[in-house]
Structure formats: structure tokens, C-alpha cells
Amino acid sequence: MTQFPLLSALIWLPILSGLLVLMMRHQPNLAKQFALWSSVLVFILSLGLYTGFDNTTAQMQFVEQASWISAFNIQYFLGVDGLSMPLIILTTFTTVLAVWSAFDCIKERVEQYMAAFLMMNGIMIGVFSALDAILFYVFWEVLLIPMFLVIGQWGGQRRVYATIKFFLYTFFGSVFMLIAFLYMYSQIGSFSLLDFQAMPLGFTAQILIFLAFLIAFAVKIPMFPVHTWLPDAHVEAPTAGSVVLAAIMLKMGGYGFVRFSLPMTPDAANELDWLVISLSIIAIVYISVIAMVQKDMKKLVAYSSIAHMGFVTLGMFLLYGILRNTGEVQGAILGLEGAMIQMISHGLISAAMFLAIGVMYDRMHTRDISAYGGVVNTMPVFAVFVLLFAMANAGLPGTSGFVGEFMVILAAFKSNFWIALAAATTLILGAAYTLWMVKRVIFGDVVNHHVAELSDLNRREFAIMSILAVVVVALGFYPAPVMDIMHASVAHLVEQAMTSKLP
Amino acid sequence: MHAIFLTILLSPLVGAIGAGVFGRWLGRTGSHRITIASVAVSAALSAYVFYLYVFAGAESYNATIYTWMISDGIRFEAGFLVDRLTATMMLVVTFVSLMVHINTIGYMEHEEGYERFFSYISLFTFSMLSLVMANNFLQLFFGWEAVGLVSYLLIGFYFKRESANQASLKAFLVNRVGDFGFLLGIALVVGYFGTLDYAEFFDGLAAHAGTSVMFGDTAIHMLTLMTMLLFVGAMGKSAQMPLHVWLPESMEGPTPISALIHAATMVTAGIFMVARLSPAYELAEGTLTFILLTGAFTALLMGLLGIVQTDIKRVVAYSTLSQLGYMVAALGVSAYAAGMFHVLTHAFFKALLFLAAGSVIIAMHHDQDIRNMGGLAKKMPITYAALLIGSLALIGFPGFSGFYSKDGILMAISEADSVAAQLAFVMLLVGVFVTAFYSFRMFFIVFHGKESDYVRTHDIHESPWVVTLPLIALAIPAVFFGGLFVEPILFGDMFADAITVAPEHNVLAKVAEHGTSALDMLLHGLMALPTWLALAGVALAWFLYIKRPELAPVLAQRFAGVHATLRHAYGFDRFNDIVFVQGTRRIGEFCSRVTDSKMIDGWVVNGTANAIAFLAAKGRYAQTGYLYHYAFVMIFSLMGLLAWALW
After folding, report:
1. Does B218 lie at the interface with A, CB-CB under 8 angstroms?
2. B29 contact partners, CB below 8 Å, separation of at least 6
């Protein structure tokens, strides 16, 4: 193949520039500028995936394949389809904003901080494009290290507790995934995900593999009851860390379901879909109620993330219920595409929310809701953005937050009225916790002299917020371009998930 | 036509963005110029469209603007459906909006956030237009939520006031409760009809007339469930009990928007939606009865609350609630045209009443308590006349717009022969008396009552022309619109292309037997009970507040229990606060502290960590480092192993 190895470039360019930045000790400004422009370059490069993408096929594209550890038939095997490509662009896009957002608030070891984000960028792209299980696993686990360092080094008061919790929790989950990989390898002698998807598997094996995957992905997403690491990690993480965590790392779990669980163990997914659906509903209802009473803004948004990810997992596992209930698959695609767009949208909105909290934290050094009140008086421009993102978080039509939730609720009805009803409570609960926070933080009269002394957004902050606002609104008014990327791949996925793999 | 419709829709959006984003550079005058110009363009073109549809007989227009997305074979689109119903709503929305824009120049003259305000009301106009012009459920829902958003922003316009922030949050959340039902209703539409498009939905209705939804072994008529869920949305937006609680508090917003949003346009969206979807509602008898009773109860019970209000805007707000009840009740007997007719007349006279009340408030330097007013008749003659005209229209005084529309509703309900309809008819008749009483109670106290100290000591004068001009412009349709349009709307085919009524439900046809012209109705109305009840209400108000003002407090004391019940608005707010607000918060606290922190985190997560730490701490003792310990253990183990092997 003579094609330019775009995916490799997207993975290794950020990692190499990260290494380069590491060397810019004592030159924080150079490190910042270099990090920013290299992440912009990577973003522009990643647009090549979009322009060169063929919407009409579910085949893997931009494929690169080479032997890596031939003794075990482990390959350096990369490729993207309609499920992973949007997530890669989301990754490169978010990284630019994350890097840029850290320009003022990080004062110590700037070059290391920047390097961590550049490397994470490459590693995350690796996760989304790896088509070899071991390669995937390596990216998946290696990603923990820079994030561990970011929270542990630049985090808040209880960062040690949070990082250990974060690390052990996610590490615990992924070990099961590795065992599942090894089992499947032992059966067919290949680590290729495409081979995994094609191989027949007995029912018991499928159930066990499905559960192993579920543990790994449920921790990552995170789903109830393995979600408690997320609020702690977010609270302690610096702003950019939270942004990457919420916008991309959580999506890796959702991606896992569509790349592994559904196509590799369809019979088990059919058998155990009630489990995922129940946990998703708990995430939507129970977690939303918890979000309501949080006193820390970041915790509130963290819980809101879990609730929104509940829509992702719900949308992904509706298809079997729809088939059972209506006898046809009409609606399955709706649910899955809803889940996918929900991931993109949540990536943007949660990033925006965490950035907004970061803007306030940089000025006030507190995230307590009770320390705020009347911010609109001193930061009117900022308040407009917060309101927009809050409304997007509450799923207002015209913002990207609406699209996925709407589609998933429509699809949920096809499966079961009560599931749709439970999911639709987000309309009330999501608005309640988000807008109640906005009311207490943004509106009202100025409550103390700290708020009175706040200065409105500077140019850099304004630019970051504007970019996100434009994308959130654009997707809300015209989601078709993103949808068009996914159609073929999602249709293919539904076919895989509906085809029994029992030998 | 497409270009014209697009201009009507988008022009206010341009104005909103102009004033909102560039308001800082445009300044106050620039901002109001750009928004007023943009809405004026919409209004003028809407008038042209109205002419084309209503007088020149243009064909119903149904077309896609753009495809939002396609998923799973379902087209999600934005599109126009313009027929005579839409054209009429477009005209009313843009006209009232234009009047409110102009009025705002005066009302907000000395207020902060002037540009922001103009931006909001233009944005509202865009949202409302996209709601009424929609040809599909997606755009309907977009408009539905967008007007909710602007309403939220405007109720909370004075964001420094805690009460305003509370009210705006409440309005949004209560509306979201309605939208919760609305969205599920749309899910049913998509689930059974596989489309969001109105026309395709209507085409599929016949095939689904008998479809049931199974809940376990119970079968529920699908269309009844669907229409009921959609109506829950209408209950939120059109403030029907028990989702009415947000509307009185929405008066925290500036008065011009109370006129535009919380009286003339947004709150009637629910009625418009039911009328638009009349083909579906016609097939759901159960829902219609529910709608009828909901409307009747709201009309009477909310009207009663108007009697005890002391805030001038709250009186008008409760009268809006009550009038919305009349409109909804009309829908319940399939008299969709009568409901819509009242929407239209009400838009004019209620906007007039609100703007007149706003004029009074300006004169009173933003004091809204009617007990501080009195004797304002001579000081502000135009406002006085406007409020009088609005009130007469509201109580259905013969000849005024409100008379025709309200009488249409009452006659339609009297022709429906069910027990529910009879009950509703009685409640609505009592409501007529109540309406007249509270309206003229306010009118007499404000204009003819004894001058308060405040009025005596302050310079109170008529408002500037930007305030009074819209009053005059709205007073004209408040008087004449009803008489001019009663025949085509109620008995003619004005809305025939939009509204479907099953022959056996057609009560308006029976009403038509009493004569169909405005004059017939006028003559009939003069003899009928409602007119006399209304006059009795006015007379009682005059007696209690002008003739014998000392009696009112005595009566309040005598019926203290009733008075307190009314003052507390039947305790809805208290109930909601205790059960829903505090209840949810308590559950949240419990889940957060107990299940999440203590059980999952405390027992499982940290428990595991502690257990490992504990085992490690104990296990450490095994590694003592003394050679004889290891040797000892080795020898014993070896002996044990040998013993086991030899056994």
C-alpha cells in the first residue's frame, strides 16, 4: 500500500512532539506555543480522515498492517470506520482546547504538563484506531500513565487518593479484558479484532467474555455501581485533565461496547442486555438525583457525565429489546446512532462545562457552589456561555445535547414504554440539576467581594468558549454530516450484533 | 412563497443576533431599531400571507426547509406547513410582537439590559414562528422548547432578584414536566407511524384507529395514550392545572413580555398544537373528555384566585390562566375552531390589558400593588380607556371581540351532550361571573378608587407615545376582530383546511342553527345568561369596591377560611415544594451520602483497599527475616506434606 500512513502519523506525531516538549525545560512559553501548534497541526491532519473517508462502506479505512511480534501473531494493525473516525476527530479537537486552556493556570513544570497532553492525544488515537487486541490493550493501559501523572502532579488536595483510586479501578477493569483477549487468541491464534468478530464462540464462553468486557468498559464509562472513581478524579484533576477525561477517556468505554461486546459476543449481549439497560437507567435516574445535591461544581458535572453516558449505554443495547418487542430491527440503528452522537456531544459539552468551571476556579480558587452567586454581574460574557452550555447539558433542542437523547428515547420506546419513560425523566432531572447550579452560581446579586472582583473572559478564554459554542450549536442544528459518517458502519454493526455466533 | 416564509421566520432571528451579539456596539437605539425593523418585516409579510390565504384563497403549503438528519429511515426535517390556521397565528404573533417591541422602548427606558431585552423578544418571535409554521414534530418540539428557553430568560430578566431567579427556574422545570409527556407522545408517533411529518402522520391515522398498546395483559388504546401524552405537554405550556403553577410567578418578568409570552402567544401554543393535531384527537374520546374537564376546572378555579390578588399583574395573570381554561375546554368538545378563535381574540385583548397594566406600572414608578393606586382615571386617560376596552372584551361584553369567542365556546359546550360537558358548562358559566368580578374589581380600585397617599404625593402622568400607541393599535382588534371573523372562523371554512372534526362531534354545526352572523350572535347573546352574569359581576365589583368599600374587608374576615385558601392558591405551591422539591433533594442527599459514599465507596471500594492493607499488615509478620523461623516452617510443612502423601 502506497497510501500515506495517516493514522500512524496521527498517533506518533503527538507522542514525538510530546517528547520534544519535555526537553524544553525552563522555556515554558516555547513549550506552550509548541504544544499548541503541534496539536493544531494534528487536528488539521485528522481532518484528512474526514475528507478522505468513504461514507458508503463499513469496511475499515486508512488501514495499516504490519507484523509486530510475529511469535504470537501480534500485529501493528490500524484502521478506522464510521464508529471510530468521529471519535478521533473529537480527540484531536479536544486536545487543542485542553492544551490552550492550560496556558495561564499551570505555572510549574509546564513542559511536562503539555507533554502529557500531547502524548495522551496520540495514545487515545491509538485506542480508537487499533485493530489488534494487544495493540489496543497497550494503548488502553499506557494512557493511564500520563493521566495518572496529570492528576497526581497538578491535582488538588486529595489528589493522591484520587489517582490511586482512578488507577486501580480502571486497571482492575481492564485485566478482565486482557484475559478475554488471551482466551480468544488461544482459540484462533490471531489477535486481530476483525478475526475476533468473525470467530464462532460457544454460549458459555460468550457470556464470560461479555462479562469480562462489561467490567472493563463499565469502569471506564463509568456505569453504576463502578462509577465512584470519576467524581473524585474530576474534583482533583486540573481543568485540562478533567476535559480530556470527560470528553474522551469515558468514550473509550462506549467505543468498547460497539467494537468488542456487540460484534464479538452477540448472543451473550442478547442474553444480558437487561443488565446493561438496567444499569443505564440507574445511571440516568439515580445518578441525576445525586447530581442535584452536589455542593462542588465539578462533582456535579461529573455525576451529570455519568447520567449522560447512561444514554450511550442504553442506546447501544436497545436493539435486542426492539427485536423482541416488535419483531423487526427498525429502531435499532436509531438507538445506536443516538448513542454515538451522544458520545460526541457529551464530549463537547462536558469539555465546555469543565472549562467553564476552570475559568471560575482560576479566579476564585474554589469550586464550592456556595462560594459563588451573581457571577453574571461581573462576568456577563462568560455567563452567556455558561448558560448556553448548561442548556446544552439539559438537552435543549438546537444544541448537540438534544440529538442523542432524543434519538435514544425514540428508540427506547420501540423496545419498551417504561424504559422510554425512565429515560425521559432526564428532561426534568437534567434541567433541574444543571439550571439549579446555574441559578446559584451565575444569577443573583453579587454575594461577596471575591465575586465582585472577578474579571470577565480574556481573549484566549473567549476564543475557546466561542469555538465550543459554535460546534455545539452547529451540531444541534445540523447533525446530518456526523450521522452520514456513521450510517454504513452502524448498519453493519447491527447486522453483526443480530447474527448468532454460536458454532 | 418559500422565500417569503423563510424571511418571516428568520428576520427576527437576525434582529435577535444583531441586538444580542452586537448590542454593545449598536447601543440602545441601534438595538431597538434593528429588532423592531426585523420584526416589522415579519409582520408586514405575515399580513401579506394572511391576505393571500384568508382572502385570496391560497393553497396550503407544505415543504421541507432542510433535512436535519436521516437515521434508520426516518427523516428528521425542518419544514413549513402554512395554511389559514398558520397564517392567522403568524399574523397574530408578529403583530403582537411588534406592538410589544415598540411598547418596550417606553417600558424599559430607564432599565439596564435594554439591548439584551430586545434580543430576547426577537428571539422569542423566531421561536414562536418556528413552532406555528412547523410541518413536523421535530420542529414543533424545537419551537416548543425554544419558547420555553426565552420565557426562562425573560422571567429571570432581573437576575439580581432572588424571586425572579426562583420563578424562572420553576417555569422551566414545570414546563419540562409537560415536555416529558410531550416527548413520550412524540416517541409514540415515531414508534407507530415511523415518521415525524404531520401529513404522513395524518395519513396513517386511519390504519391505527384501533391499535392498542399492551402493558402486560392490559390493552390501552394507542391514540388515546398518545394524545394524552401530547396533551401533558400542552398542560405545561398552556398552564393547565396542575401544571399551572409557573404562570403566576412568571410575572416576575418585565410587563411587555408578560403581554407577549405569558398571555398572547406562548401559552396558547398548547391549544394550537391540539388544534393542529385535531385529526388525531378526534379519534381519542377519552382524551377529549379529560381535556374538557381540565379546561373547565382551570377556568373556574384559577378565576377565583384572581379575586384575592393585590398585584395588578397577578390579577391579569390569573385571568390568563382562567381564559386558557376556556380555550382548552373548547378543544374538549371538538370545538377546535372556537378554542382557536378565543386564542386570537384573547391575544389582542390580553396583550392590551397587560400593556395597559404596564403603562400603569410605569406611571406608578414600577409599583405594582393596586392598594397603592386609585383615582388614576383622570391622570392617564388613554391607559384608562385601553384598560376598560380590554376588560370589557375579557368579560365578554356584547359586541367586543371576547364576547364572540367566549360565547362561541359556551354555546359549543352547551350543545355537547355528555355529563362531563354539562358539568363543564356550569363551571364555565360561573367562571363568566367570576371573570367580570375580578376584572372590574381591579379596574375600579385602580382607576376609580380613593386616591392613595402615594398617588396624591407623586407626579403621575400618562405614559409616552411609544407606550400608548401600541395600546391604541391593540384596542382596535380587541373591539372589532371578533365580530368581523366570527362567521368565517366558527361557522365558515376559515380553518377547515387545518382542523378536522368528526361529524358526530361537530357541535359548532349545531350552534350554527341559531344563526351564523355576528348580528345573530349579538342578539342571541343579549338575551342569554352569560351576558347577564357578566354584568352582575361588574355590578358586584362596583358595589363592593366603589359604593361600599368598607364591606370587602369585612367579607374577607367573615370567610377567612375561603380567603386563606384562595390566598394560598389551594396549596399547590406548598405541596410541590414539600413533595417534589424537598423530596427529591432528600432522596438525593440519601443516595449521595449513604448508597454512593458509604456503601459503594466506603464498604466495597475502600473496604477492599482496607482489607488488602489489613491482610498485608498481618501477612507482613510471616516475613520476619529470622532464618530459624523459615527453617521451622519448612520442616513442619515438609512433615505435613509427607504425612499427607503417606496417608
Report:
1. no
2. none
Judge whether A503 lies within some domain: no
Complex ipTM, two decimals?
0.92
Quick check: A413 contacting B, CB < 8 Å? Answer: yes
Give the relative orientation of helices B312-332 and B401-415 as an angle to the nearest 10 degrees. Answer: 40
Is any Cβ of chain A less than 8 angstroms from the Cβ of B625?
A: no
At A67, is the secondary structure helix, strand, or coil?
strand
Q: Could you tell me if A87 and A128 are in contact, meaning their C-beta atoms sit under 8 angstroms apart?
A: yes
> Domain range spanning residue A442?
6-493
How far apart are alpha carbons B191 and A417 in whole angstroms? Answer: 10
Which among A410, A428, A478 has the least Cβ separation from residue B180? A428
Of chain B, the end-to-end C-alpha distance in Å amounts to 101
pTM for this predicted structure: 0.90
Buried b (16+ CB within 10 A) or exposed e, B245-263: bbbbbbbbbbbbbbbbbbb
Q: What are the residues whose beta carbons fall under 8 Å from the beta carbon of B472, sequence distance 6 or more?
A: B382, B386
Contact B72 A332 (CB under 8 A): yes
Instruction: Please state the separation of Cα B58 from the chain's center in Å.
Output: 31
Contact yes or no for B553/B544 (Cβ under 8 A): no
Interhelix angle for A297-316 vs A332-364, to 10°? Answer: 170
Q: Kindly report the nearest CA distance between residue A377 and chain B, in angstroms.
A: 8
Domain count for chain A: 1
Residue B157 C-alpha cell reads as 430578566
Tell me chain A's radius of gyration from C-alpha atoms. Answer: 22
Domain assignment present for residue A232? The answer is: yes
What pLDDT score was predicted for residue A2?
55
| Tens of pLDDT, residues A307-316 | 999 999 999 9
Nearest to A286 among B172, B176, B591 (CB): B591
3-state helix, strand, coil in chain B (%, to 5): 75, 5, 20
Task: Identify the CA nearest to A247 among candidates A483, A457, A464, A425.
Answer: A464
In which residue are the cell numbers 367579607 written? B555
Q: Is residue A502 part of a domain?
A: no
pLDDT digits (tens, 9 = 90+) for B390-430: 898 888 888 888 888 888 888 888 888 888 888 888 999 89
- CA–CA distance, A428 with B284 (Å, rounded to integer): 27
Cα–Cα distance for residue pair A344/A392, rounded to 1 Å:
13
Cross-strand bridge partners of residue B63: B80
Whether the per-residue pLDDT at A1 is higher than 50: the answer is no
Rounded Cα–Cα distance for residues A258 and A433 (Å): 30
Q: Which residue from A471, A487, A390 is spatially nearest to A436, judged by alpha carbons? A: A390
B219 touches chain A (CB under 8 A): no
Nearest C-alpha of chain B: how many angstroms from A499? 19
8 Å CB contact of A413 and B183? no
Chain B touched by A48 (CB under 8 Å): no
Interface touch A413/B69, C-beta < 8 Å: no
Q: How far apart are the first and last CA of chain A?
A: 35
- Cβ atoms of B23 and B116 within 8 Å: the answer is yes
Residue A500 lies in a domain: no
Cβ contacts (< 8 Å) between A487 and chain B: which residues? Answer: 71
Q: Nearest-5° angle of CA B119, CA B121, CA B124?
A: 110
> Exposure pattern of B406-427 as b/e (b: 16+ CB <10 Å)?
bbbbbbbbbbbeeebbeebbeb
Report the C-alpha dihedral over residues B163, B164, B165, B167, rounded to 10 degrees: 80
Render the burial of B310-331: b for 16+ CB within 10 Å, e for the rest: ebbbbbbbbbbbbbbbbbbbbb
Q: How far is CA B565 from the centre of its chain?
A: 24
What nine digits make up the cell of A230? Answer: 470519576
